[in-house]
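Many introductory courses stop at the sequence. We go one step further.
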Amino acid sequence: MLLTQILQPSCLKVPLEGKDKDAVITELIDLLNANGLLLDRDGALEAVMTREQTRSTGIGSAIAIPHGKCKAVKELVMAVGIAKDGIEFESVDDKPVTIVLLLVSPTNQTGPHIQALAKISRLMLDEEFKHGLESAESAEDAYELLSKKDNE
């Protein structure tokens, strides 16, 4: 799976404006909605927030992967945000998050959802790539970096 198949260039936000977990998740949901990718903005937001209440998706190493499954999308969609200042995300390592990768998928499509989570996890193990993403000056720079790495 290539992340660039589910991530549109217009669904990256650099830098994120939100200063806390809820604000950042809402900001990325609103970005997906503004790009016409959600059938139900509030339903998508509720699905991601409900999942987040179960257990934080701050996976450590300055990365968070908030995600949810709901009827608010026809297919798996993704938004990415880079925070210049770390955001408190209740991460497993208790450190702030700078890279937020949000996924929303239909309730009946578990396979692509799991594949995307696995691909993100593998990409984020590359410290040089991760640092490049954190240093991106614009959404275009971040997408170009992600696209290049995705196609290796």
